[in-house]
Task: structure prediction
Amino acid sequence: MKSDTAKPDGVTRVLQYVSLDRRQLLKGAAGLGLVGAAGLRSGTASAATALKYLGWEGYDSFLAAGDFGKSDGLTLQKTFISSADEVIAKLRLGSSQLDICTPYFIHDGFLAEQGMLEPIDLAKIPNFSKINATILRYCEPNMKVKDHWYAVPMTYGSICMLYNADLAATPTSWTDMLKPEYKGKCAITADYVGNIFAWARVAGIEQPNRMTKAELTKVTDLLIDLKRNHLRTIAPSYGDLVQLLSSKEVVISQGWEPVPTWVGEAAKIKVAYPKEKSMGFIEGYAIGKGAAHVDEAHRFINNALSKDGQLAGATANSMPVVTDEAMQATDAANKAIYDYDHLDDYLAQKTMIVPMYPLESNGDLAIWDNYQEAWEKVLKS
Amino acid sequence: MSSIRSRDVAAVAPSFLVWTGFFFAPILYLLVVSFWRVRQYKLVTDASFDNYLLAAGEYRHAIVFTLVLAALVGVVTTVFAFAMAYMIRFHAGRFGNVLLFIALTTLFGGYLVKIYAWKGLLGSTGIINQALLAAGLISEPISWFLYSPFAVVITLVHFLLPYALLPINAALRGVDDAPIEAARDLGARPSRILIDVILPQCERGILTAFALAFFVSAGDYVTPQLVGGTDTFMIGNFIQSQFVNRMNAPVGAALAFATLLMTLFVVALVSLLYRRILKACAT
Result:
């Protein structure tokens, strides 16, 4: 039976309940077995070097494109995350254990300042120069600290609106989800940062990352009303959102640009950018401080920025690319989703790239923990 | 004498290590952590009861809701499991073991598979709604089948049924036929035999089944997340959030211990009620 849902090779940013890397385990076991069988006689054979990758499933697809590293015995030992905050936790437990990771873009700065990331040696990433100038300009405030880059951008996107074009009119505002006709037919994901951003903008807050506690309370109340009186559910992952949209349980939702491709022909899902803007992000690779394979990690990251690397990620997951040559080389389907010719418009008008939220108490401003607390309050209501 | 002592120590050492490594040490560590706090994602080791006060205040409703839902799952699962075990023991004859085997094979299906199967069954376009629509019993899909407490209960009951079946089945197999036949010969009705003869002898199996279903449900966070909708966030969701999203192990640990204490209280209460009810119903 032919599936009517286009499935990405590696579904990205999808909640994982079990993260097993059996293939790598088997490869390792087979390698050990061969070494044992050879009685360690071969002085020329070199053992495979496994770099530890921690990040969203799918974000790894740029790194090893074209069987990169295979001839040198370099492999990626992947662990996928279910929450962006997991990267911080793992870096805290031992940054040297992570050769390559994908921190949430707003975390890059404070992770670097707290000494958990290696500065990127741009001389070892010649493809860095191919990154689109607009992308670089927007990610620099988050990824560059004191003249050093601590992350290398590889894709971008936004927490935008999605709607079923057959069953709903094109939304122009996040508040369209409150319309009576969509009661019980709308959904959001558990991406609380994106949710708080969206409804802060609805509340008229110019800088959602610099809210006062009173403003955050107002936003929390808006989200509570949305949750209690309008939502069908809060999708725990994009995989679940795809299912909700495919089955038409939900006709309007918060989401992410690749989702319509994943839904495929099951439903006519389209992207919309509300007038209040969507939270934009530019994602990047970073290297854990003191990692065992810093040079090799640079090589993989350089490969991710090669034309083949960029196109591999774009093809596997319908994600956008960040280098000029890849932008020109992507297929029509990818170009139809991402308007590379008007990146400034996308990053300045449709979306908004925000810096990290305050971590320490600073007058009346809400700190990061207040945002997380606010989201829990929404869930508890 | 000393060699006997050495042998004794050697004999219990593996067990001691397992108990210590897998149970006592982690629990003790989490208990200690539950009194600490986190500042900028770092543990600060100054002890206080603040986390427990938070659990009793901010999370009280989530804990109570969880206990009620888990108790409902525990009761429904135990009743269904008892009915299945009763049939296997007294009515299925030589097919009893086959039925038990069939029930246990569902364990191989996996937890997430069952959750997604119920999502498919209960959704607006799911089989159940479509069948009801086709039969003309409803005019539009019933939305509360999915993303509701009902969906959480039905999914957890289905998942936990084989586990609950095992202790009740074992207990029923231990019930001797002689007193049942004697009661029957003396003219006791089936319901009287059940209350006076069978249920008292199955107490341990029934309470074990309830406790198993109750504890697992009370600690679950995946099922409410996937089929629970907007109104069914259980305490497990908040414990997970504290550990994973907020990286606040102290609050997460305090919530876990507060929930553990409350679940132990509920199980003790149910045990007491079970005995009281049986006593009150006894002739």
